[in-house]
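Running this now, will post back.
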Amino acid sequence: MRTIYLRKEENGFIRKILIDMAYLVSHKLIRLPKYYFEENLYLPYKKLGSGINIEKYFLLKDRITFEDNNFYYFKFPFKSEEVIEFAD
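Update: finished.
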């Protein structure tokens, strides 16, 4: 599986946060450290066969599947091929 990043747009800049790929592959969940969580984090995706429509999957408090002392866990409702890559 390739590397996938969350994005955050702020003041004309785009910041990226690396997703824990080992956890994602084995559990099909995004494991995000609590200190990385902030409003407007998103994962850009495009449904396979949908043309050029790129959508944003926002990680919101109400989308947290569960949490522990250090991490929030979010569902990963995509195939890895649907997630848009981040150009460095």
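The first helix runs from residue 21 to 27. More later if anyone needs it.
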